[in-house]
Amino acid sequence: MSREKFYITTAISYPNGKPHIGHAYELIATDALARFQRHDGKDVFFLTGTDEHGIKMLQTANREGISARELADRNSYEFKKMATLLNASNDDFIRTTEERHYAASQAIWKAMADRGDIYKSSYAGWYSVRDEAYYGEEETEVRPDNIRYGPQGTPVEWVEEESYFFRLSAYQDKLLALYDNQPDFIGPNERRNEVASFVRSGLKDLSISRTTFDWGVPVPGDDKHVMYVWVDALTNYITALGYPDTSAEKWAYWPAVHIIGKDIVRFHAVYWPAFLMSAGIELPKRVFGHGFLFNRGEKMSKSLGNVVDPFTMVEHYGLDQVRYFLLREVPFGQDGSYSHEAIVNRTNADLANDLGNLAQRSLSMIAKNCNGVVPQRGELADADKAILDQATAALATARKAMAEQGIHHALAAIFAVVAEANRYFAAQEPWALKKTDPARMETVLWTTAEVIRRVGIMCQPFIPGSASKLLDLLAVTERDFVHVDAAHALVSGAPLPAPQPVFPRYVEQAAES
Ligand code: ME8
């Protein structure tokens, strides 16, 4: 039987600089969502990559005295390196300067032109290079510094040139019908309301080509024009599935769930579905706009120069510590702040203390008192059954949460089991049972180890490296969500490797010396 397919994407980042922690955040979250569905039995395709055209790239390259292609090559490599560093399980990494992407972008352009949705005219209006976005004058304002800014707070400049246009205005009603008929097309709800009110306020046709530079995909049949960067950028999601060859095996993964930041929801929830409707392609399942990460509350971006390097952060705190912190602490869909204290507190409390200590204490007791094999499971008491049931129930909660990108809810449910398992362990006092009732001690240790097995399996999408080590310590080989249930429980008497700590505690440098 063929497995259900699931396609998930991140935004493709501008490689006009090195990746920052905001990029890392999006990739980690999308990776957790992808891994979750894989462990839940789906056939997953997970895509990330770099968005290499546009004026922003060209201007940065000019400033650095290199070509846009050199800049793209150099920094795209950094984004690839980041994906490896973060243990991202992406199945492909797309670069929009690749041959396959030119073919796909020109094909979708032709499909929209064949539909009669593209015409030549001239554009006169405001453009933000930083956002690579056209804005209506009413969306801009002149501030006291005498500079005109767009709605995202970036400066806009006046552009006037010959341009091809896409008949976006013709899609206003169809888009509004889409938001009504498919209420989960945009998430979270605030994003959906913003987009719907933007569309309701009236859509103008969209300028989709430029003539004043040539760093882009050439417009088919008119080499004087290159495509507006967002036309080719959005197309990346179908390039990777082999478009325009919709008979290709990979095409079966379409439609996608797009995970993006809240600043680019308009492109994904207005322009993209309109392009797809025009080209006769099925629409994405969902567009989810996550929040922004702030360094102690301050906005961070390449242009502002206060970027935190994910490489340094991972080296300092450890990969799964960073992954766990970002996914557990920041409600996915809302803005979040991070600071040294918050990372240390959260990871020491949940990973080192709650999960790490429980595993270390119970597995050491097993090594010492049960000959290093899975303890004998006697008859289960109500307390044992309760904690085991809570572990199994957490999977259902996590599954429901992850289906709507509630990553923090899923982790909260899983770590509530860990907290309860600690209370269970403390209340059962297996160290005291050792003398009074060794058989009961074995059952308590078995129950604890079995809860750790279930939790370990469920933790894999979020902290894959550590979860895998934890499962190794229990000699668990079946690691998918179907194996969480009692039918796949630890078998008494099975040999276990020597226990080792999995979650090191973060110790402040000063306190160490
Ligand atoms: O927007 N916190 O590229 P990009 C959280 N090329 N997320 C952040 C963030 C922060 N501080 N800063 C950026 C682009 N992001 C386009 C996308 S898709 C067809 C083209 C997110 O490098 C941002 O919201 O500016 C976006 O989803 C992604 O990082 C890439 O941003």
UniProtKB/TrEMBL annotation:
List, alphabetically, the CDD domains matched.
Answer: Anticodon_Ia_Met, MetRS_core
Q: Under the GO molecular function aspect, what terms does this record hold?
A: ATP binding; methionine-tRNA ligase activity
**Keywords from the UniProt entry:** Aminoacyl-tRNA synthetase, ATP-binding, Cytoplasm, Ligase, Nucleotide-binding, Protein biosynthesis
What GO CC terms are in its UniProt record?
cytoplasm
Q: Name one Pfam family in it.
A: tRNA-synt_1g
List where the motif 'HIGH' region lies.
13-23
Q: What is its EC number?
A: 6.1.1.10
**Which locations, inside or outside the cell, does it occupy?**
Cytoplasm
One BP term from GO: methionyl-tRNA aminoacylation
Enzyme's top EC category: ligase
- Gene3D superfamilies annotated for this entry? 2.170.220.10, HUPs (3.40.50.620), Isoleucyl-tRNA Synthetase, Domain 1 (1.10.730.10)
Q: Which residues form the Methionyl-tRNA synthetase anticodon-binding domain?
A: 374-507
Q: Which residues form the Methionyl/Leucyl tRNA synthetase domain?
A: 7-362
Task: Supply the PROSITE patterns for this chain.
Answer: AA_TRNA_LIGASE_I
Question: Motif range for 'KMSKS' region?
Answer: 299-303
Q: Describe the reaction catalysed, as an equation.
A: tRNA(Met) + L-methionine + ATP = L-methionyl-tRNA(Met) + AMP + diphosphate
Against InterPro entries, the record matches this protein to: aa-tRNA-synth_I_CS (IPR001412), Anticodon_Met (IPR041872), Met-tRNA_synth (IPR014758), Met-tRNA_synth_2 (IPR023457), Methionyl/Leucyl_tRNA_Synth (IPR015413), MetRS_core (IPR033911), Rossmann-like_a/b/a_fold (IPR014729), tRNAsynth_Ia_anticodon-bd (IPR009080)
Nucleus recorded as keyword: no
Annotated function? Is required not only for elongation of protein synthesis but also for the initiation of all mRNA translation through initiator tRNA(fMet) aminoacylation.
Q: Which family does it belong to?
A: Belongs to the class-I aminoacyl-tRNA synthetase family. MetG type 2B subfamily.
| SUBUNIT field | Monomer.
What protein am I looking at? Methionine--tRNA ligase
